[in-house]
Amino acid sequence: MSTTYTLDTATSRANPTPAPMKRLTVPAIRRRKGETPLVMLTAYTVRSAQLLDPHCDMLLVGDSLGQVIYGLPSTVPVTLQMMAAHGAAVGRGSYHAVVVIDLPFGSYEASPEKAFENAAWLLKETGAAAVKLEGGVAMAPTVRFLVERGIPVMGHVGLTPQAVNVLGGYGARGRTPEEAEKIIADAVAVAEAGAFSVVIEGVVEPIAIEITKRIACPTIGIGASAECDGQVLVGEDMLGLFDRTARFVRRYETMGERIGEAARAYAEDVRARRFPGRSRPMPPASQPRWGISQARFPQGPLLAKGRGFYLALIQNSGARLGPNAPIQPGLFERGRRRTASRKADVFLDPVGPYRRRGDRRRARCVRRLSLLAAPPASGGGRRWRAVAGRL
After folding, report:
1. pLDDT, tens digit, for every residue of 49-95?
2. For residues 124 and 127, what is the distance between their CA atoms, to the nearest angstrom?
3. How confident is the model at residue 204 (pLDDT cuts 50, 70, 90)?
4. Is residue 134 pLDDT above 90, yes or no?
5. How deeply is 52 buried, as exposed, middle or buried, from its count of CB atoms within 10 A (0-12, 13-18, 19+)?
6. Does the annotation count 201 as an active-site position?
7. Whole-number Å distance between alpha carbons of 295 and 297
């Protein structure tokens, strides 16, 4: 029994409910070598995990969040704390896919022991199933150290973004025979050290094909080859949220343009006062839910402005109400008869000072009523309370 998440349609937030289903496991991913291609996308938030999880075999909480979420120039400044926060969010939003989380730059290179300490902490904090680290032959001992101590590892060879300062940019790798041989040797070393899968990024296609043939674990391509055992993309790139993406990215949507259009339409409605409409604000409840300071509306005008609404003040049958006086049922019917078109949002039943203003001015100010309010039933009388719904 694992935990699935259903969407609360009122809030669009995840509420965990137990369901009889099984989450994919690392061994199940490893057994997919040569079978139906594996699907992996990056996710950084609960909501993105909820939407992507049903369609993916793996969700990668990548250190690319430094650029995608935080606007950093590279993945180098990303910290363990940043990875932990987003990894935990993705874990809460997924129920089907294997969640893999990147070890950020500087958290694993020093020694296998340091890598284990940070990897174990990340898995505890996030609930992820595996970690991913970049590097080849040099990192093979670290991969073996982690796997032998119960931490599944996904390798990453070819274009390794954490080494951008050494590589000098994000161009394709393996264009020379020497570099091609090194990338293949890196992949073989990581696979033989126990990695359950290896990401191949930004290499010329023959290298990706050769690696896929030579290693026993699945290969996950990104800008590599369709012959890999699976593919991964940054979710935001796939959805078209950015104007500039790598050449190998295929946009399946233009969400950036659609979000911009939605924001433009919202801004126009706000500036034209079309939003919110009169039907959208929360209707008043029959029980007291808010109060209006009586002192805020001194004697004088019959139509007073509150916080975003207008108050229509009329007398109660010419009688002065004390703080403990009951509400007279006839107020509703009289209010309906006197209101042909709306000018006021809230109908207050004051304690008497407006009686002398006269019916003609009262009728001119009070056109239609939304809410009936009255002085509090208990003594004091400093705040009004809502006592009825819309008229």
Report:
1. 999 999 999 999 999 999 999 999 999 999 999 999 999 999 999 99
2. 6
3. very high
4. yes
5. buried
6. yes
7. 5
Answer whether the bond into residue 16 is a cis peptide, omega within 30°: no
Contact 284, 389 (CB under 8 A): yes
Query: What amino acid is encoded at 41 in this protein?
Result: L
Asked whether 203 and 174 are in contact (CB, 8 A), the reply is yes
Tens-place pLDDT, residues 306-347? 444 444 444 343 333 333 334 444 444 454 444 433 344 444
Q: If residue 313 lies in a helix (H) or strand (E), which one and from where to where?
A: strand 310-313
Q: Is residue 391 within 8 Å of residue 370, measured between CB atoms?
A: yes
DSSP per residue over 39-78, as a string? EEEE--SHHHHHHHGGG-SEEEE-TTHHHHTT--SSSTT-
CA-only gyration radius of the chain, Å: 32
Across the chain, mean pLDDT equals 78
Give the predicted TM-score (pTM) of the model.
0.70
* Residue 247: other Cβ atoms inside 10 A: 7
What type of residue is 383?
R
**Residue 280: pLDDT band with limits 50, 70, 90:** low
**3 state SS of 138:** helix
Q: Are 140 and 153 in contact (CB under 8 A)?
A: no
Q: Closest Cα to residue 180, out of 165, 198, 158? A: 158
Per residue in 221-264, pLDDT tens? 999 999 999 999 999 999 999 998 989 999 999 999 999 999 99
Which residues, in sequence order, are bridge partners of residue 383? 293
- Our CA angle for 249, 251, 253, nearest 5°, is 160
Eight-state DSSP code of residue 226: T
Could you say which of 134, 192, 201, 253 is catalytic? 201
**pLDDT at position 278, please?**
72
Report DSSP state, residue 307: S
Beta 291-293 vs 383-386: how paired, if at all? Answer: antiparallel
